[in-house]
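To: structure desk
From: M.T.
Subject: fold request, one chain
Message: Could you run this one when you get a chance? Sequence is below, nothing fancy, just the single chain.
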Amino acid sequence: MTVAEISELLDGSVQGDSEKIITGVGKIESAEPGEITFIANSLYEKFFEHTKAGAILVSDDFQIKFPRNDISVIRVHDPYRGFLILLEEFEKKQDDFYEGISDECKIGNDVTLGNDLYIGDFVSINDNCTIGNNSRIFPNCTLDKNVKIGNNVTIYPNVSIYRGTVIGNNCIIHAGTVIGSDGFGQVKQADGSFKKLPQIGIVRIGDDVEIGSNCSIDRATIGETTIGRGVKIDNMVQIAHNVSIGDDTVIAGQVGIAGSAKIGKRVMIGGQSGIVGHITICDDAIIGASVGVSKSISKPGLYTGYRAKPHKEDLKQEAFIKKIEELNSKIKMLEKNSKDGGQ
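Reply: Done. Structure tokens follow.
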């Protein structure tokens, strides 16, 4: 894109060469001459003098203290928002490289394929699957029977999607994730051994969901494991059978959610937290990092601690714990005084 085209896209104004070609975006500290960067925070103004970027987004009122003829300046109302728009635009242009259906993929019987698809090498699509328009499936992915995928879905390499899974529109699934694998259903027998309980349900994923790499989302024992609209899941997250996650919930890396837990809408779950099965977490709750949630949460707010509790209560307990050594010394002194007095 030319600087002029970028300025028009962002409704900005140009100082400098408006015909300069920009081929990508970069950080202000390391951007190359063919890249555009931005300043949205005064802490980064010091880099303006030395950045090698070919163009830079700044606010309408940005003061240029070190005039430069080698960089094109685009003034916009909100440089950060403008930069996000540019990132999306350049990503779309990258997507143009991925189109068509590889001769090396395998497509089963009665498969319905939408328009403008990309299906990479060694993708396996089993019988009775449906894939919507403008979707991209990267190499080495496997779709089992009766999988349904919506429009504008991106599935990165080495993703495995088990039978019956339903995925909505505008979803992103990163490499190595497994969707629809069996839940951990084992029944203890009289002799102490365990017998597998059949898992015959499915996974249903709403629109606008993003799932990180190497996640596992188990199919329901009966019925559905559900991921609501707009849910964002980080890498290496385990979601067990029959879990329900409400719309716009965000889950950080290494979280584990046990079977049949019900997570509300707009919940935030910090990394490495664990949630036991068969409990309910209300809408708008915030679970801190490395928190063990062993009971249902019915009121919105921040919960922290080894056993999840309201944050203020957790801080009080932390303060008491720090005083244990001091209190223990006082108890020993009182015991000694009492003993000496008794003699």
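Reply (cont.): The chain has a mean pLDDT of 93. Let me know if you need anything else for the meeting.
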